[in-house]
């Protein structure tokens, strides 16, 4: 690899990502003996870039998949979610010759902060006290209506305990919460103190949970997995559902309104949706038991993406097969 120049094409809406990548490469001691050309490329000029390595937003990759250069050996996504690319590959019925890695980045800590923000805001009546301040109304916390629960009083169920979910679970456990985790198969090196359930027992895991937190990726197995039948069997009418994973765990965005109106859930905090941006006509905007955030639970920033990419590039320079985390084309994640 050291005998030739390796071409890296950057195709992204992230501001100045190519420049940040160049700075990270220059700062890497491991890459000083390797020659790279880093070029920012317009998405519709992918094919002409003749890139060996591609750093790209997955929505652009999905749109221009046939344009990936034949020279390309490795594609690194700038997002954690890769379902747009997987869906396109499935639609085209093709398996690429290049290795595909998704961006892991600092999503574990960021997602943990989002979850804690939402849980504590509800348990500590942040919105209510904001309204009280606007009304110049003093209501001490000792009143029965304002008696709050600490994190140690709560049972939380995490759907999807992968790289991100492990960090969220470990933090909540460290703060004294009772935490359950739903996974496809029970791991041998699981999070200490976490009560594991398989997806077959998801209803049991959700049963009487105070918060249900979805962190699952979008796969054929998870699409539409949250439905009326599951919630009825789970008996989680007092639960707040936090969806920070993927919007297609329900068949339709409006299903959340139905779940709430039918008393299957108490509240829904939604960061992701099947249709984004969420249309103005959506009933979710005005539902009294819905909290909406615009897909901001864990955001990709240029310096984080570049850092993760260059760390992978160091692995690639030594052994291309060691880049991580690699996407499994058969599993579509």
From TrEMBL:
| Organism domain of life | Eukaryota
Q: InterPro entries, per this entry? A: D-isomer_DH_NAD-bd, NAD(P)-bd_dom_sf
Q: Where is the D-isomer specific 2-hydroxyacid dehydrogenase NAD-binding domain?
A: 117-297
Give the SUPFAM superfamilies listed for this entry: NAD(P)-binding Rossmann-fold domains
Q: Which CDD domains match?
A: 2-Hacid_dh_1
Gene Ontology molecular function: any one: oxidoreductase activity
Task: Specify one Pfam family.
Answer: 2-Hacid_dh_C
Key words of the record: NAD, Oxidoreductase
- What is the protein's given name? D-isomer specific 2-hydroxyacid dehydrogenase NAD-binding domain-containing protein
Q: Which organism is it from?
A: Salpingoeca rosetta (strain ATCC 50818 / BSB-021)
Record lineage: Eukaryota, Choanoflagellata, Craspedida, Salpingoecidae, Salpingoeca
